[in-house]
């Protein structure tokens, strides 16, 4: 006869975010994600303690799928991020890191969850409205008559992963030529049948001696293909390399400093509360940009465009920055312009970032780092909404049976 065990009562914990253990666990997860972020992000080897294969990756979809989390708060965060990645394939690490930053920064303000959620939602609306507006200074329209912008977007995705160092160009002869065309009718639909001059097939061959690296290659190329499909539906891209985050933070600071009346009138908050949360929100965005630096270099932002700049680790304490900086993170601005910089971690004063893009943005620049507009906008929304959900948690009830 099997032995019966008495049913254990459910475990109820109030104010879960006040627990030091939960905060420490959230900090560890943030550290794992942050160190994997960007083109120089470090690869992670995830191995189940009970055995099984080792997963080597720096991509959010593979990392979060193989990273076991047990606490309900971490499950909410990772599940939201995985759902975002399943729909958009890109910006998973951006979403998770921003969510962690928001939770961490907001807790330091001491504001009530109700106030935080209302103000976070308003700041999110400011961000989305600005990113969708024609005057946005970090959005570039895609011109389908020129492939340069799309090539920059794909190159930003493909070459920012560790297993792929470069992407070779395709010879024009590989595309083949049209010998003839003839009309064709199938049912009620009419088509033009293109008859090739020769049977030319252009394929992308993915190969690697290591199965793990091969899986990374396949996942990376699938992401690039999905991002291209999203860009065709929404023909615009965002500046990469941390420039969208720092530019957006500068815009939000300027907007809330110069036009606080509409926010205070609608949400019933004080100006002090608005200033505290705006700084926490902007610092969260800037911390994501700072996460791209993994080699001990300094991260700066300029006072004109609000773009992100990175210097070498051995920079002297007193330095003429134009001699040490070449281009901003996205590659759009160069240091030879009349710019002034400040350290990203220093106190940032509200500035009005220039919203008109430099000429190179609409020209044929080949070296821009770009992000998918649709994926990043969704990631921003998911990060803020998930942070609001976690900050609003009052009780966690766990069934221990």
Automatic annotation (TrEMBL):
InterPro entries: Cpn60/GroEL/TCP-1, GROEL-like_equatorial_sf, MKKS. It comes from the Eukaryota. GO terms for cellular component: chaperonin-containing T-complex; kinociliary basal body; nucleus. GO terms for biological process: chaperone-mediated protein complex assembly; cilium assembly; developmental process; protein folding. It holds the Pfam family Cpn60_TCP1. GO terms for molecular function: ATP binding; unfolded protein binding. PANTHER family: MOLECULAR CHAPERONE MKKS, SYNDROMES PUTATIVE CHAPERONIN-RELATED. This is McKusick-Kaufman/Bardet-Biedl syndromes putative chaperonin isoform X3. It comes from Mustela putorius furo (European domestic ferret). The lineage of its organism: Eukaryota, Metazoa, Chordata, Craniata, Vertebrata. The gene is LOC101684116.
